[in-house]
Amino acid sequence: MPRVKELPPVPDKPVVSPPAWVTGEEHVTLPGLSGEPSLEAAVRVPAGAERVVVLAHPHPLYGGTMHSAVVLAIAKVLAEKSGERVGTVRFNYRGVGTSEGAYGKGVGEVEDVRAAIHEARRRAPSAKLSACGYSFGTWVTLRAAAAEHEARDIDRVVLVAPAVRVFKFVIEDARGVAAPIAIFVGDDDEFCDVAEAEELATTIGAALTVLPGSDHYFLKSRRRLAELVLPALV
Predict the structure, then answer these.
(1) CB–CB of 169/204 below 8 Å?
(2) 184-198 pLDDT, tens digit each
(3) Are strands 128-134 and 206-211 parallel, antiparallel or unpaired?
(4) Radius of gyration of the chain (CA)
(5) Residues 218, 186 contacting (CB under 8 angstroms)
(6) Which of 77, 78, 66, 190 is CA-nearest to residue 134?
(7) Can you give the pLDDT at residue 170?
(8) Neighbouring-strand partners of residue 89
(9) If you count Cβ atoms within 10 Å of the first and of the last residue's Cβ in the chain, which end, N or C, has fewer?
(10) Distance (Å, whole) CA 188 – CA 214
(11) Where along the chain do its domains lie?
């Protein structure tokens, strides 16, 4: 695929994935952090869950929602393979769907990821937490995990298709993240080629998995991606 060096103009009517639900999910509204907008979410946290995975979606101005195909694929595989042991929280950033507020230029979205992490903690106080972001979601997830480092319950961080040419990942983003970080990228990703992914992995001390024949959207390999991501999350 052609390399993309910067985000295109924001579309007037971005293509948005239709709503889709995983068996056992509740459609709920999450409280934001103090003074922050409340958020639309799909939550599946079984009683006694040992782990909860927080899933952050792609860029909200380009049609990214909690129903985006990659996020949904990971949520489905987690439910199928991990059952009652592992819960999930996927959510819409501020200004997306029925979430309150407006686009926060990456700063507000970090707080939204943190709000989802707090909800996971509230529902499963003794569970371990995993934080997983896709595309734009990788950028805000990494910074949210760093901001939450004092709690020490986030012990896995997964970044799927980090768009390194568009969002600046620096060592400061990972400072304070005690959890192991895993990166998954396609070898035909328009926003991050393999060499750039290797550089990012080295910079933030992450493990890297490359999916042959996959682009940024994993159009033909979403199920395979989700199954590869699973061990890094649980």
Answers:
(1) yes
(2) 999 999 999 999 999
(3) unpaired
(4) 16
(5) yes
(6) 66
(7) 77
(8) 43, 54
(9) N
(10) 6
(11) 26-233
Any bridge partners for residue 36, and if so which? none
Show the tokens assigned to 155: 């012990």
Residues in the chain: 234
What is the reported pLDDT for 103?
Answer: 98
- Tokens representing 195? 């060499």
Measure the CA–CA gap between 134 and 63, rounded to whole angstroms: 13
What are 69-107's pLDDT values in tens digits?
999 999 999 999 999 999 999 999 999 999 999 999 999
Q: Give 26-233's CATH code, choosing from 3.40.50.1820, 3.40.1440.10, 1.10.10.10, 3.40.630.30.
A: 3.40.50.1820
Please name the residues in contact with 48: beta carbons below 8 A apart, sequence gap of 6 or more: 84
Closest CA to 37 of 106, 137, 115: 115
pLDDT (tens digit, 9 = 90+) per residue, 110-132? 999 999 999 999 999 999 999 99
> CA-to-CA distance for 209 and 222, rounded, in angstroms?
14
Contacts of 63 (CB under 8 A, 6+ apart): 11, 14, 15, 16, 17
